[in-house]
Amino acid sequence: MIEIVTPRLRLREWKEEDKEPFFKLNSDPRVMKFMPKLLSKQESNDFVERIKLGFKQDGYSFFAVELIKDKTFIGLIGLSIPKFHSFFTPCVEIGWRLAYDYWGKGYATEGAKASVDYGFKELGLFEIVSFTVPENIRSRTVMERIGMRYVDEFNHPVLPQGHPLEKHVLYKIINVPYQ
Ligand SMILES: CC(C)(COP(=O)(O)OP(=O)(O)OC[C@H]1O[C@@H](n2cnc3c(N)ncnc32)[C@H](O)[C@@H]1OP(=O)(O)O)[C@@H](O)C(=O)NCCC(=O)NCCS
């Protein structure tokens, strides 16, 4: 079982009891503002199962994140292999989604930095990408805080042409060990 521990967070594999709080954040319009839709309980649970399959198939995926101080589940942060095709795939992406009450505390940046370190040092990755809609400034700021750089724009192939969330910005960080 992989686990990453930072000063305030434990990034770990998923437990059955994470499903309820994960559904809560996936059905919160504030958290899902830049996603195509809120998730139903079934869709949220299916997402957890896909993540668990990722751990089995690839050896890593988005981690469940809990606070060390009281073990509260606060969301997901981690690395995953996107299943869609674009000019930058195959690749490894870094992503994050935290419950609204835990924004503004530096948790996403803390967990994301640790995930990039894990990807570079333990998995030996050469580069990690991230993407979101241009308006998602909080997410873009996390990308910039952890040293990612803007690369390009692309139309997300999973969304229908002309969808309001179709346009995405792509960021990247490269593993330069002796920089
Ligand atoms: C994207 C997301 C994870 C960013 O969360 P966040 O809390 O803004 O990001 P950080 O963890 O980096 O926190 C930074 C903030 O914490 C503050 N902070 C407070 N205590 C801190 C500490 N001890 N250390 C660092 N920063 C701290 C910073 O000053 C900063 O505040 P600001 O937002 O007022 O500038 C969150 O908005 C989210 O879950 N969004 C919905 C899902 C989503 O859009 N995901 C991306 C889709 S691609």
Q: What does this protein look like?
A:
With 179 residues, the chain is of the alpha+beta class. It has one domain: 3-Layer(aba) Sandwich (Aminopeptidase), CATH 3.40.630. It is 28% helix and 27% strand. It contains 4 helices and 8 strands. The strands form 2 sheets. Strands 1-2-3-4-5 form a 5-stranded antiparallel sheet, with helices on both faces. Strands 6-8-7 form a 3-stranded antiparallel sheet. α1 packs across α2. It is globular, with a radius of gyration of 15 Å. It starts with a strand and ends in a 5-residue tail after the last strand. The mean pLDDT is 97. Coenzyme A binds next to β5, α3 and α4.
What keywords describe this structure?
179 residues; alpha+beta; Aminopeptidase; 5-stranded antiparallel sheet; 3-stranded antiparallel sheet; 27% strand; binds coenzyme A
